[in-house]
Specification:
With 621 residues, the protein is an alpha+beta fold. It folds into four domains: 65 residues, Arc Repressor Mutant, subunit A (Orthogonal Bundle); 103 residues, At1g16640 B3 domain; 88 residues, no CATH class; 300 residues, no CATH class. Helices cover 48% and strands 8% of the residues. It has 27 helices and 13 strands.
Length: 621
């Protein structure tokens, strides 16, 4: 057996340590292909996709349309200023928000040390105390006292060891009387920031996507630091700072938006009773923009004759099938003991919906979501993952299922202490059968079970046996599923005949399974009877809600696999027209946006059900 071929991700990580400055994208892509040749029609597409969605995690930052820079090069010796609030100094704590986006972004941990290299202790908030106003912070009490730090003084911070995991930042004290004016630097930073935000179409822009490229190209990156960028934004007013970590030029959203996950450091004190409403308001704006795109695409495809424009809703009906699915999900997840949140209160005043422009939602749609505890279960799952120590969630996401279970088990005692409401006590007097516990079975409903890592296997098991053993479905749908499994087996062989690696063929064949089971369960059809309407329903309603561990990248890959599968059926003369699969593939970014937004819905929000209904229109009407 040949040596395992390096993955694109590993190559990009390695190259991030080889380049010492900005590099043209084409040069970087060619360098990757030298290590991993490709016979694809567009060999650059896959690499660009990885850089687009995972670039910073792989050590790369895009600074323009055609150039990237290694993140370590940007951060090495970068110098910036922190100006603590009076309450920070009084409490002796420096919140993490002061270091964004140079450290602490996307779960990347870092150490903060003084002039002598001594680390400052980190203070975690008590997640079980809803009344606590403690932010995740560093403990600087002793240092503040030793240096005589007072309100108006600054911390000058330099990154002395940049790393994807484990950066080191060193601080020094600058009294206010010694601070030097930096008008040119401040003006350059602010004007470039405003220009970048105005040219980005998204409603909310992550601060790292704006601030880091500016510093990467700035001549003063490692020089004497100017005013903190957060202070410039708040003072100027043309662009608004949202939740300490987002930027927007949408004034109405910024005025009403208050933080949903952390208390703000650089904005006015939040009003507790409207916090969630404002956060949901921002989500609603994103959902409305997405729905406009979805409607336009569906209408264009109907005009092209790809479907009749009639939405199908077989999976929206809550039947025994859904109960079976939930039971299958429960058997495969260590989070199966999580209880749901409070039911949606149907007696709430209509004014609650009017605040979001949701007064026209049908009452039957609202009642439908009273029973959708699966969605709340996923929200609880996200709450539990967020409670893990920094970096652990990333380890779980990158791990195989069996590895993820080991990682999670190491933190179980901590989770039980921090989130006891997510783990109801078991009645030990009941037998496993009485509690409804069945022997574990491998299931399609954990995406990791069928979205395999593209790594070489030691052996190639018979594909048809693997498909047959993956999961079991009810007898009424078994015939249709069997027909689909035969087609998937042929598709797997077809990909091997085209010269694809066995792991690539296996991954793409696995991707088709979600649609195969969907058709068998809800429509009593096989894959050869797939069409635009049912594939739209599967990817834009069923998949985000019913499959665990989904991600934007995975749903894009599913769309690509579906296009290739139906092209295979047409090539073999089993299907006359595969245009519907191509049309759905062209909408893969829309499918990814659905998952991105759904992951941000807060299960404890009083508006969860209304936002849920709006996100999954027209299937919730």
């Amino acid at each position: 057996m040949t040596n395992q071929e390096p993955t694109i991700a590993n190559i990009l990580r390695q190259l991030a340590h080889e380049y010492a400055g900005p590099v043209d994208e084409r040069q970087l892509l060619d360098h990757v292909l030298q290590h991993r040749p490709s016979s694809a029609k567009n060999p650059y597409a896959t690499i660009r996709e990885r850089l687009r969605w995972e670039g910073m995690g792989l050590g790369w930052l895009r600074i323009s349309r055609s150039q990237l820079i290694p993140l370590r090069v940007l951060l090495q010796d970068l110098h910036f200023r922190c100006v603590p609030r009076a309450c920070d100094i009084a409490d002796g704590r420096l919140p993490l928000a002061h270091f964004l986006p140079f450290a602490g972004i996307r779960g990347n941990w870092f150490d903060l040390v003084d002039e002598h290299g001594q680390p400052f202790p980190f203070i975690s908030p008590d997640l079980n105390d809803s009344n606590s106003d403690l932010l995740a912070s560093f403990d600087l009490r002793v240092w503040f006292e030793r240096t005589g730090f007072v309100h108006g003084d600054s911390l000058l911070v330099r990154i002395i060891h940049p790393a994807l995991r484990g950066s080191i930042l060193r601080v020094s004290h600058e009294p206010q009387a010694l601070r030097q004016p930096t008008p040119d630097q401040d003006r350059d930073l602010l004007e470039t920031l405003v220009d970048r935000v105005n040219h980005i179409q998204d409603v909310l822009v992550a601060c790292e996507d704006v601030i880091l490229p500016i510093f990467a190209l700035a001549p003063w990156r490692t020089d004497y630091p100017g005013t903190p960028w957060q202070h410039l934004v708040v003072r100027d007013g043309r662009v608004q700072l949202v939740d300490d970590s987002f930027l927007t030029n949408q004034h109405q959203i910024a005025i009403n938006f208050l933080p949903s996950t952390i208390q703000v450091v650089f904005e006015a004190q939040s009003i507790p009773e409207v916090e969630r409403m404002a956060a949901d308001n921002a989500l609603l704006a994103e959902i409305e923009a997405l729905q406009r795109d979805l409607r336009r695409s569906r209408e264009e495809d109907a005009d092209a004759g790809l479907w009749n424009g009639q939405i199908q809703r077989a999976s929206a009906a809550y039947s025994t099938l859904d109960a079976d699915i939930d039971q299958l999900f429960t058997r495969t997840s260590p989070l199966s003991a999580i209880e749901g949140y409070d039911e949606f209160d149907t007696d709430d005043d209509d004014d609650d919906d009017d605040a979001f422009g949701l007064d026209h939602l049908e009452s039957d749609a609202m009642l439908l979501f009273e029973n959708d505890e699966f969605a709340r279960l996923q929200a609880a799952h996200r709450e539990l993952i967020e409670a893990l120590p920094p970096g652990v969630a990333d380890q779980i996401e990158a791990a195989r299922p069996e590895e993820a279970e080991v990682i999670l088990s190491q933190h179980l005692n901590m989770l039980l202490a921090k989130k006891p409401h997510l783990f109801p006590p078991l009645d030990l007097s009941m037998s496993p059968d009485e509690m409804g516990i069945e022997p574990p079975t491998e299931s399609l409903f954990d995406a990791a079970a069928w979205q395999e890592q593209v790594e070489e296997e030691d052996d190639d098991d018979d594909w048809s046996e693997e498909v047959d053993d993956l999961f079991a479905i009810d007898d009424d749908s078994a015939r249709f599923y069997d027909e689909s499994s035969d087609l998937i087996s042929q598709f797997y062989d077809y990909l091997l005949e085209l010269g694809k690696r066995s792991t690539t063929a296996r991954s793409r064949s696995h991707n088709v399974l979600v649609y195969a089971e969907f058709l068998a369960l809800y429509y009593q059809r096989s894959l050869i009877q797939g069409d635009y309407a049912s594939l739209d329903e599967c990817l834009f309603y069923y998949y985000p809600r019913r499959v665990m561990n989904t991600s934007p990248r995975q749903v894009r890959e599913i769309c690509t696999s579906m296009k290739q599968f139906y092209a295979f059926l047409k090539d073999r003369g089993l299907l006359a027209d595969d245009r519907f699969a191509h049309a759905i593939w062209r909408r893969r970014d829309q499918a990814a946006r659905v998952i991105q937004i759904y992951d941000r819905l807060a299960g404890d929000s009083p508006n969860f059900d209304a936002l849920f209904a709006r996100l999954f229109q027209p299937y919730t009407e």
